[in-house]
Design goal:
Blueprint: E1 21-23, E2 27-28, E3 32-37, H1 43-56, E4 72-76, H2 81-94, E5 104-107, H3 117-130, E6 134-138, H4 152-169, E7 172-178, H5 188-191, H6 197-201, E8 204-211, E9 214-221, E10 227-237, E11 240-245, H7 247-271, H8 278-285, H9 289-301, E12 306-308, E13 311-313
Parallel strand pairs: 3-7, 3-8, 4-5, 4-6, 6-7
Antiparallel strand pairs: 1-2, 8-9, 9-10, 10-11, 12-13
Helix pairs in contact: 1-2
């Protein structure tokens, strides 16, 4: 009988900070995961954007910096080859790139059945030969012969085979997968069609959803903070086309939120007859302590708020003055 290999916890190697991201804040280095969303939510455009970002080094979605460039191997089975080529050309034109200069390889098979051992080995051998930094498979439904995607026992072996590829060849793996129709208001991971194995499998997961006329991206990581409701848009320029983050809308939204918080704090101080301590302002305005502390510093610098030994208040010039009896609609009675 042979014992399993073990090591003391403090002897485990730690990943350096600079090696934690493939695409910063969007996809972890060597992560497996899902690009999910309802039909017509630009999942394939997002996958192509990631592919071109990793091969070119240009920011993904015109926002997320690439931390590791390298070869990309792409399986895009939902669209004809000429449609994939046209999309890639148009995204390249938007970013002033030449597709011929990029180390991007396309699997041209109509399907890859990873529930069949010979086809699993074919994919493994292709990865061994090309050694990609990122493998993108679009979509999951073309990766099997017709298994029941609701059954964990059917889905798990396929996902496990891709995890083995990731670990053996140190490449990131992204699978495009559909969400259930009408699931835009459900927690993203739970909205994915089929077994819960999909959500549990991912180290980095991206979820696209439409809210009326807006396209929103939710980002989820196993070991890093995520982000929610990032606005995206398909933008055209001449004959080019690209999926990008809406910087202007995002900045406006953030600015409006900051203005609302500032207004609530100033109003709470205006309504108080005496200085307020941070806890009192926080409870009245429902603001996190860290956010409130930073805001008060800014307001003191701009001389909109003053700090006293009893707490925080408006400067005297901003305090409401006592009413002038002569300006009241009804005069005070004579003494």
């Amino acid at each position: 009988m042979t014992t399993l290999p073990v090591v003391r916890a403090h002897q485990l190697s730690a990943m350096p900070e600079e090696k934690r991201w493939l695409i910063e804040d969007l996809w972890s280095q060597e992560a497996v995961g899902i690009i999910g969303g309802e039909p017509k939510s630009c999942k394939s455009f997002l996958a192509l954007s990631m592919a071109l970002a990793v091969t070119s080094g240009k920011p993904c979605l015109e926002h997320f910096d690439v931390k590791q460039t390298g070869r990309v191997l792409l399986f895009a089975a939902e669209d004809d080859a000429h449609i994939v080529r046209d999309r890639l050309d148009r995204i390249c034109a938007f970013q002033d790139l030449s597709l011929a200069d990029l180390d991007l390889w396309i699997i041209t098979s109509p399907s890859i059945h990873l529930d069949i051992e010979t086809e699993r080995l074919n994919l493994l051998e292709t990865v061994e030969n090309l050694k990609p930094t990122l493998l993108i498979l679009d979509p999951f439904i073309r990766l099997h012969t017709g298994i029941d995607e609701n059954l964990s026992s059917a889905v798990a072996p396929i996902l496990s085979s891709l995890r083995r590829i990731q670990r053996r060849h140190h490449c990131a793996v992204a699978i495009v997968h559909h969400a259930r129709k009408g699931a835009a208001h459900i927690r993203p991971g739970q909205a994915l069609r089929g077994s819960s194995e999909f959500h549990a499998w991912g180290d980095s997961n991206l979820f696209l959803r439409r809210n009326k006329d807006r396209l929103l991206l939710d980002i989820e990581h196993r070991n890093q903070p995520g982000q929610t409701a990032i606005p995206l848009v398909l933008e055209t320029k001449d004959h080019s086309l690209a999926l990008i983050r809406c910087q202007m809308q995002d900045n406006q939204s953030s600015s409006q939120k900051n203005q609302d918080i500032t207004s609530r704090v100033l109003q709470s101080l205006r309504d108080s007859k005496s200085p307020l301590r941070i806890r009192e302002i926080r409870d009245r305005c429902h603001i996190r302590t860290a956010t409130l502390t930073e805001l008060l510093k800014q307001l003191v610098t701009s001389k909109k708020v003053q700090r006293t030994k009893d707490g925080w208040s408006l400067p005297e010039a901003h305090l409401p003055s006592s009413p002038d009896p002569n300006q009241l609609p009804f005069p005070f009675p004579s003494p």
